[in-house]
Amino acid sequence: MVASKQMALTVRGLDKIYGTGCPQCFNLTGPAYETNICSECGTLVACHDISLDLEHGEILGIVGESGSGKSTLVRCLYFDEEASGGESYLAAYRDGKVNLFAETAQRKRHIRNHLMGMVYQNPLLGIKPHFTAGGNVAEKLLTAGFYNFADIRSRAGSLLSRTEVPLARMDDFPAHFSGGMQQRVQIAKALSNNPPLLFLDEITTGLDLSVQARVLDLVKEIQRELGIAMLVVSHDLGVIRMLADRTAVMKNGRMVEIGLTDQILEDPQHQYTQLLVHSML
Amino acid sequence: MMDNTILTVDGLSKNFILHMLGGEMLYGCDNISFSLKAGEFMGIAGPSGAGKSTIIKCIYRTYIPSAGQIIYRTKEGEEVNLASACERKVLQLRHSEISYVSQFLKVIPRVSSVNILIEELQQRGWSSGKARRQACEFLEMMNIAPKLWDAFPATFSGGEQQRINLARALITEPRLLLLDEPTASLDSETKKIVVQALMALKKKGTSIIGIFHDLDSMNRLVDRVFTMRAGQCKSIKRRQEVV
């Protein structure tokens, strides 16, 4: 398969299971059974048959309850987890002609370092607390092939000020930062290699409201100015409404609905989406 | 389709299926048909719950129509059925030609009023200096006090928020503007400002569909009134006939 030129990312039929698996796994799990654990063999079906397209500069929201498979999906796409099946194509990699899941570990590392960025809910997964804030950004830049010290230093500085980390603290350790500031260091790091594709996993969860507003505005600004395509995972429908053009809804490892964000929120079609929207504060 | 017709709604129906109530069906609107010419202003009137907003939201595709067609003619002359067009086509039209103003302002917190307007223009490729000048002009036209320009609208009065909301849609000069009670809860002075702004936009050729409870404002603006009752069209009359 060749991905369409307009698409930054194309995913087809992604599966992820934890366990031995049996022929019944996909038939006995999903929203109809209200579980993602196969009653036959006990395998956990975290994601099944997930397909999506992401245009250049587009923000796609992914919502769903805890355990619905949102984070697993993103982790598979970022190669933190190995997908059990399916295909993924990146326009920026060999013109979108090669299935990334079939590439070697070394190639995947290269793709991750050069063409993708990831921001985790827990900032300490994305940054090293015992490297300085500047050092964290520099680390990503080094792996992406920047070797000139002065260049790295100035780029790290501009990224950190962009994400409103005071330059005076560039040489401090994130271990001593607040959660919100750690999160902004993580965003600066994720942006450092200028990735065409960015994954954001629950990035505002646990942040205080004023920092949350700033992070949301920053994400919008990045989209507008750099045209980066983003996959935004959140269980906060307010965040999704602010950020995403389109939204996908997940439940028990399946994608049950995908549509325009305002349509998902105001005219939800699937039973589960209706429940989710009606539970919104 | 006639030459200067911009929108043709044909047999539009919308039902809502509530799974939580065992699949009970709610009826929004039923078999609605009308067309709209370039530069025409059509008002929709009727009691609460008659299905006025449903029609507008179907055109904007916030609601997925259950039946019927909504043919929109783009600037390039392409005919797009908004009832079934792919999501990206709808998004593209929303970013370039079709705007919707609800009664509520929904914006990212801690973005100033002037920046809310600037961002709309920058999304459409304006330079930041030019966008700022235009944004200030619109805030002034909407009679928003200059000291509020750099403030965040969360704590503004209802009337001020509504004017920011309108300014945000008007500044982009859409070809088709959908308004859901733009003058609700405004005092008469502010209403006058809003009516003038809408008249100016209409003069520039924008086609407008607006829901009004306030018949006085409506009669000053519209060419035709579409009256609804219980999800159906009761009458379509020229303005003079309604008065």
SSE layout and pairings?
The complex is a heterodimer of chains A (281) and B (243).
Chain A: E1 7-18, E2 44-55, E3 59-64, H1 70-77, E4 85-90, H2 105-115, E5 116-119, H3 123-126, H4 133-143, H5 149-162, H6 179-191, E6 197-201, H7 209-226, E7 229-233, H8 237-243, E8 246-251, E9 254-260, H9 261-266, H10 271-278
Parallel strand pairs in A: 3-7, 3-8, 5-6, 6-7
Antiparallel strand pairs in A: 1-2, 1-4, 8-9
Chain B: E1 5-18, E2 24-37, E3 41-45, H1 52-60, E4 67-73, E5 79-81, H2 87-96, E6 98-101, H3 113-123, H4 128-141, H5 158-170, E7 176-180, H6 188-203, E8 207-211, H7 215-221, E9 224-229, E10 232-238, H8 239-242
Parallel strand pairs in B: 3-8, 3-9, 6-7, 7-8
Antiparallel strand pairs in B: 1-2, 1-4, 4-5, 9-10
Helix pairs in contact in B: 3-4, 3-5, 5-6
What does this structure look like?
The complex is a heterodimer of chains A (281) and B (243). By secondary structure, chain A is α/β, with parallel strands linked by helices. Chain A has a single domain (7-278), classed as Rossmann fold, CATH 3.40.50.300. Chain A contains 10 helices and 9 strands. Chain A has helices at 70-77, 105-115, 123-126, 133-143, 149-162, 179-191, 209-226, 237-243, 261-266, 271-278; strands at residues 7-18, 44-55, 59-64, 85-90, 116-119, 197-201, 229-233, 246-251, 254-260. In chain A, the strands form 2 sheets. Chain A has a 6-stranded mixed beta sheet with strand order 5-6-7-3-8-9, sandwiched between helices. In chain A, strands 2-1-4 form a 3-stranded antiparallel beta sheet, with helices on one face. In chain A, helix 4 (133-143) crosses helix 5 (149-162), helix 4 packs parallel to helix 6 and helix 5 crosses helix 6 (179-191). Chain B has 243 residues and is α/β, with parallel strands linked by helices. Chain B folds into 2 domains: 1-97 and 175-183 and 201-243, P-loop containing nucleotide triphosphate hydrolases (Rossmann fold); 104-173, no CATH class. Chain B contains 8 helices and 10 strands. Chain B has helices spanning 52-60, 87-96, 113-123, 128-141, 158-170, 188-203, 215-221, 239-242; strands at 5-18, 24-37, 41-45, 67-73, 79-81, 98-101, 176-180, 207-211, 224-229, 232-238. In chain B, strands 6-7-8-3-9-10 form a 6-stranded mixed beta sheet, sandwiched between helices. Chain B has a 4-stranded antiparallel beta sheet with strand order 2-1-4-5, with helices on one face. The longest helix of chain B has 16 residues, at 188-203. The mean pLDDT of chain B is 89.
